Predict the structure of Adenylate/guanylate cyclase domain-containing protein.
Amino acid sequence: MAERNYTRQLATIISIDAVGFSRLMGIDDELAVAAFEERRDIIAGSCGAFGGRTFGDAGDSIMAEFGNPIEALRAAFDFQARIVALNAAVTENMRMQFRAGINTGDVIVREGRLYGDDVNIAARLQEFAPHDGVAISATTWHHVRDKTAAVFTDLGEFSLKNIALPVHVLIAGRGGNGPIAAASFASIPAASGHYRPITKGPPAIAVLPFQGNGSDPDVGYMADGIAEDIIYGLSNTRWLSVIAKGSSFQFRDDSLGTRLIGNALGARYIVSGTLARSDRQIRLNASLTDTSNGRLVWSQRFDRDLVDIFSLRDQIGSEIVSILDKEVDRAEQARTFQVPWESLETWQLVRRGRWHMNRRTRRDTEIALDFFDKGYREDPNSSAVLNELAWWYFWRAWLRFGDSDDLEKVETLARKALLMDSLDARPHAYLGAADIMRGLPALAAEHLAEAIHINPSFAFARSAMGSAHLLLGDAKGAISFFLDTERLSPFDLYRFHNLGELAAAYCFVEDWPAAIATAERSLNLSPGYFYARFLKIGALMRSGRCDEAARELAIFMTRHPDFSEQRIRWIPFVDPAKNNFLIGNFDLAKSAA
């Protein structure tokens, strides 16, 4: 066996990394290298002055070793301050910032180089540091907390890549008015030395204040207003826990990054965005990030004409709320597949059931019911479970053209869900939808109005309200609700149905081109949807496009050989003349065939 030629010792390691080095290399590689070397000399000088030494330079990273954790922290503050001063003397696009991570632990020393998990932890810690900032482990903090003027803020416990045990991370800031002042991190809970517990239950989402680009104060006010509207709207979805504005709005400086902010707030998802104004237009860029892995879940740009600020805020805010509700739901459905079936919590059973429900096959629908039933057995008073069961039976009733037993179950489950949470819009909407299928559109409209009042971003409730107006004979009024649904949920799984209803409304106002185009959009999403093709055939005939109508009729009869006009007579219009009108349009094509 070869003789060992290394030793072990206790050491404090600083891992230092240049921020934006690759960007500067792309602008001017020679200037970037020169800037890095100038700052590397500053770092080496500070480390030497405080009893440390640098080792292991690699690209844009530097490592330093200290025997004393206090001196390591002082050295980090010293070179950070000197680099900040140097950066202030150059143009903004040529500044090179450095961040540092400090950890204390057992290391292996061999030929002047250091190895071991504690070296790797320091390297991971610097990824948590703000630009021109310092992140330290709890191990280092215990050595320095009462012996320096630094102020520490707690980011919580993290699982680091290739490190077996979680590591508690803190930010070290200079006391007073130094360049790394504690005020930058005042919004993070003060360090207590206790590890943050791992939370269970539904995920939390935090909406950060949107950044207003430019010097116009109105842009900043509007950016804050949109973020506030999103917080309010998300809280009305009921299934998501939303971090209060008073907590999330303290993070106006996003230099910490979404992962750290999410951990500090206890939020799995972070919503952030920027707002810019140009003449009479605004542009909003919004994004949703999963803080558990740093991945971007969703992002979108919204361009709008600047007219009435308040209505514009309502419009954009409601759109984003509707999108976020579905995107978080989709992400959580996927997350349940990382958990063993038998270990799923009640809310996770709901998400897994929704995943199967969204596939819309007979087998998946049956599996979805198994998950919802298991959730009900575990927690019969869960409003989330009660709502999903109500939706499941409503969907089956719709497929069965209004099965009365299923509708009774919808009502029972929805009313129980309201007892559990009277401010949940979903039970009101499901009661309204059940009344629509029972031929009670006026009563349905009352339930749906309550659902929309509670959650203005609830696309299903708006679509159902359009259907209620349509059945009452108000096609013009119905169109606005269907168009609102399109705006709020442009990628909705059940969009084919909303478009079918919109096509019917266009038929009643005799806007045949719009009816044809809308029916085609519905069929693009669900080619087997009989109602959309039925409406398209009648609209083509009324437009004089008889050859196209004949081709569509042939497709219709092939797909639906058992069709009878009773399917259309089943639609509970208050005035039966509406049923006759649609059937008459279709019969024109049959007569011409």
Remarks:
- The two ends are 94 Å apart (CA to CA).
